[in-house]
Amino acid sequence: MRAIRLTIGAVVTVAVLLGIVFTLYALMRNRPQDLPWTRLDLGQPIGAFTGRKLAGLTDDYAACRAHLRSAGVRYTMLPAVQSEGQCGYSDVVRFASGGSRQIRFSPANLGVSCPVAAALTLWEWNVLQPAAQKHFGARVESVDHLGSYSCRRIYGRTSGDWSEHATADAVDIAGFRLADGTRISVLGDWEKEGAKAAFLHEVRTGGCKLFSTVLSPDYNAAHRDHLHLDQAKRGEMGGRVCR
Asked: First CA to last CA across the chain, in angstroms?
């Protein structure tokens, strides 16, 4: 028993020391976003705990809206929706023109839960635009989507778990349009070689740092034409998933 207590004590000591070292490292690099207890700041680059903090906004609509406002993101709040089963939402926003965001969504009437909106904002600033500049020397002007809210179960089945779309906690991205006229399609370009495929894979992987679940054509045939991005409330995929 004494040996066991010594072992447990040693593990705790090592964990504390590692925590101190990690904290000092993050502070010396001036990266508070790498620490789990610091406040989320959408104006900061993506940190080690940014994704977890975004997911935590699912339980605090007011704080989520405050984060959007602090980052200069303009939005309108949509009326709550109550529907059958586990469908409906009370925390959906729609991006408004102007402010710190420049990208457009097509169709323009996209409404998503506030945590998804916050993640999309960071995705635009830290993933989409840098990747577009890297591969094409142009900025992303608009994003083509297949919608967010849909009162259905996963894959539209008649039974089983409800989809994150049922609460507007997911959005399906079909493609991108750049300022120079370039069009990039998940369906048409994912499996090809060249800059378009490299861009799509890069923005998929970058999204994994921000969303609870990211599913692409690499996951299954049902996602052959879009990237599924969600901030899962139910954990239907068994934790953070990037495929």
From this structure: 44
